[in-house]
Amino acid sequence: MDAKVLIESFAEFARSKNVDRPTMIRILEDVFRAMIRKKFETDENFDVTINADKGDLEIFRIREIVDDNSEDIWDFDKISFSEARKIEPDFEIGEEVYEKIELEEFGRRAVQMARQTLIQRIKDLEKDILYNKYEEQVGEIISAEVYQILGREILLIDSEGNELILPKGEQIPKDRFRKGDTVKAIVHRVDMINGNPKIILSRTSPVFLERLFENEVPEVYDGLITIVKIVREPGERAKVAVESYDDRIDPVGACVGMKGSRIHAVVRELQNENIDVINYTENLELYVTRALSPAKVSSITVDQDRKRISVFLKPDQVSLAIGKGGFNIKLASRLVGYEIDVFRELNEYDDEDVDLNEFVDEIDAWIIEELKKTGLDTAKSVLALTKEDLTRRTELEEETIEEIFRILKQEFEQ
């Protein structure tokens, strides 16, 4: 294979991979200089000129002419006077000899290896380009097409045919995709594994929800409304705290839109995830009240040292505060950064009820504390639930729950 064929075939391959001309020339020169070093041990006194468009390659070895008896005669950049005269009869001592080296002089095997090296360098460059491209897009929404569904992940391809990965843990539990579907997700992270970029997408990240708001709410995109914090239970519920520095803008109303038009588009993309948009405030008690919406809070006690908040509600508001599966209170706690304990307000009709603290001799204190975390602070509030409800709300074992029911029922049977 001569230089022209080698360079032209490489240049065509490089152009098909969208490699720019300066990079292409640099790779060619690096590979040819590596060949020179392998044959001559150094490339310091070699000049390599490449014209990728025409397929031209010129390699010149440059050496200074010295006297045959000179001590420098064995230096890599020196040539003896008698040797130089064989190349050109009128050379004189002190002049430089430019000796052209043909590609064939490196041998067929070296040329074949150079060709393979060039292709590998382009492939490596392509991987670097892909890595850098998606590294810059981390946290941004992209659309990609599903082409293979596996047990633990979905493989997608972008518009350029690059493979992207949506792991099971980054999918909304209600997501159901088929081959050929277009999927929206954010670029979650980009890993380099064994020299290959691995692009991980996510639909469960709070950042995905934030980007969806930016797409649907111009005021968020323009920075007139700031999203302070987002907490999510993907596919179930999310709480979004927003604020505006412009008094003329209602941040909650702008995010929801006329008749919910803006937020409905976000909800549909998130498989009907319930989204509570909350007006952020630095007033902690007011912030907690808003975070526990739709429940109406009667009173609040804040323990700054323990980072705990006790919230008191009317009996019919407790279940609203806790929410289905306990998601409302969990998300409210994460949103405000405090552990929230929910308590029922006793009224005149609750005289027959018994506070759970009265059972401390029969029920371990940590168990009572676990019940209180879910808003259950009296015997009747516990007995109003089924054993299945209590198992779902707490981390208590089934045997423990049965014993609790036995002790509490015994109190009223007496």
Automatic annotation (TrEMBL):
Occurrences of domain Transcription factor NusA first KH (ranges): 203-280
GO CC entries: cytosol
CDD domains assigned: KH-II_NusA_rpt1, KH-II_NusA_rpt2, S1_NusA
Cross-referenced PANTHER family: TRANSCRIPTION TERMINATION FACTOR NUSA, TRANSCRIPTION TERMINATION_ANTITERMINATION PROTEIN NUSA
Cell location: Cytoplasm
Subunit structure: Monomer. Binds directly to the core enzyme of the DNA-dependent RNA polymerase and to nascent RNA.
NusA-like second KH domain boundaries: 285-345
InterPro entries in UniProt: DNA_repair_Rad51/TF_NusA_a-hlx, KH_dom-like_a/b, KH_NusA_2nd, KH_sf_prok-type, NA-bd_OB-fold, NusA_N_sf, TF_NusA, TF_NusA_bacterial
NCBIfam families: NusA
Residues covered by the Transcription factor NusA N-terminal domain: 6-128
Coiled coil: none
Keyword set, alphabetical order: Cytoplasm, RNA-binding, Transcription, Transcription antitermination, Transcription regulation, Transcription termination
A GO term for molecular function: DNA-binding transcription factor activity
Known role: Participates in both transcription termination and antitermination.
Gene Ontology terms: biological process: DNA-templated transcription termination; transcription antitermination
Family: Belongs to the NusA family.
Protein name in UniProt: Transcription termination/antitermination protein NusA
